[in-house]
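Page 37, top half.
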Amino acid sequence: ENMKQEAIEYEKQQGAFYNDMITHVKSVLSDVKKHHPAYDPAAGYELAGFVWFQGWNDMVDGNAYQNRDRPGGYSAYSEVFAHFIRDVRKDLAAPKLPFVIGVMGIGGIAEGKKGEQMHFRQAQAAPAALAEFKGNVKVVETAPFWDDDLEALQERMEKCNNKFESEAKKGPKQTREEKDAAKKKAIDQAFTAAELKRFQTGVSNGGYHYLGAAKILAPIGKAFAEALLPTDPKPAQSR
């Protein structure tokens, strides 16, 4: 009985975030002026495009993809991704909605030539090759925008922090203020002033979030926007 209830609860969770996304988009479009006061209802609006830039949790999901390190290990991802594109267009009543696939670029070009990332990136891009999607689903490779220098700084900082924490546990007990001061001193000794400034102003998150770096993410966003620029001056999805 418990297993049956768990199965029911699990089924309820399926598609929850997708439904939230579609509901939110429809809510905004039902009252555009509420969200954009300058909106002119007479002019209408255009669904200019849809960008999908996700994937890390799928890539590392060993339950869903048990052959991740082998060619074809993510073939199921490609299949459901194609259904995802069809569903978005259907649910937003925009059958010609331009779609951009932001292929994972974590770790840069080198990381995409080996192991799971290589297979996963291929699986992400695969739907664009389907006949029904040619010309209306585009692929943007994000690996070229990765910053190896920022990644190296982040890795060095992690090692520095880990080393400091390990040594602090072996030493005499410190107050929070003493520990913070000692940690700052250790970091200042491990990095030049220029390196530390670049790290502090350039990195705000983990590698799986593209280091939270504007230097990486801003050009990626620009590339997505450029990929969505229409070749036909007439808006295909006006309302």
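Page 37, bottom half:
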Amino acid sequence: QRCFLIQNGIDPSIFYPGGKKIWGENGRIRILSVGSINVGSKGIPDTLQSIKILKDKGIPVELIRVSPHPPSGNEEMGKVVDQYYTSLKEKEMAELYRSSDIFVSSSIEGEGFGLPAMEALACGVPSILTEISSYQNFDARRDFAYFVPTHRPDRIAEGVLAFVKDRGLRERGQERGIEVA
């Protein structure tokens, strides 16, 4: 039989950039993390540690977590994780992406396609991604996200601060992320 390769993709009628967004609305930077802490390749503990670093420095951040499972004890509700959602539908996820200031994925090699990262990019969310093949294969030019090494929560925190301080970096990431998605 004749075979066809169908690439992973997203529905652009659902995952698209929002209108004018106010960066850091309500005085806090809204950071979104997606995936189960129970799936090792997602690297969620590194994201949690990066947020703890930022909060300990007094940086006004708000971590929103989405997972197919309820929060674990490690997610420290109220201390590190500010909002937690389970099993959202695509349209709900798209709205959440559009309401976020930064998307963070600290996945390690073994991550599959990286669908949440692609969805975030399509919604125009400046993204911090790990230097893994899944994400680097989105595009030959690595200018669509702020890339950090795996298992480096300190570098994720630096990425958040870079986006906070540099509006041009955010805007370039948004534009290129949309193009790549």
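Margin note: The helical segments are 44-56, 90-99, 115-122, 133-136, 153-165, 167-180.
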